[in-house]
Amino acid sequence: MTVTVEYGAQLRDAAGTAAERLQVEGACDLRRLLALAADRHGRAFRDLVLDGAGMPRPSNMVLLGGQLLRWDSSRPLQDGDVVAILSPIAGG
Hints:
It is a single chain. A hairpin with a 2-residue loop joins strand 3 and strand 4. This protein is 29% helix and 26% strand. It is globular, with a radius of gyration of 12 Å. The protein has one domain (2-86): Beta-grasp domain (Ubiquitin-like (UB roll)). It is built from 2 helices and 5 strands. The N and C termini lie far apart (41 Å). It is an alpha+beta fold.
């Protein structure tokens, strides 16, 4: 299946792209998708999205089809889904 992943803020910079289509074999949930993206984009990206145990950082937000979703959601992704991952932004 093909899933479009959109990256915001620091994640966009670390991934080197604002969006991409990932081909995924078999069943896939958000955690697996994030691990696949982290493998693809290297250490800087991985450090932003995964903690030391390889679990998603809860400070990042994920939207599936424009709807906010929790990282621990077990909802399987479907062909054509659009997932947006946003890192926290600080400023003043």
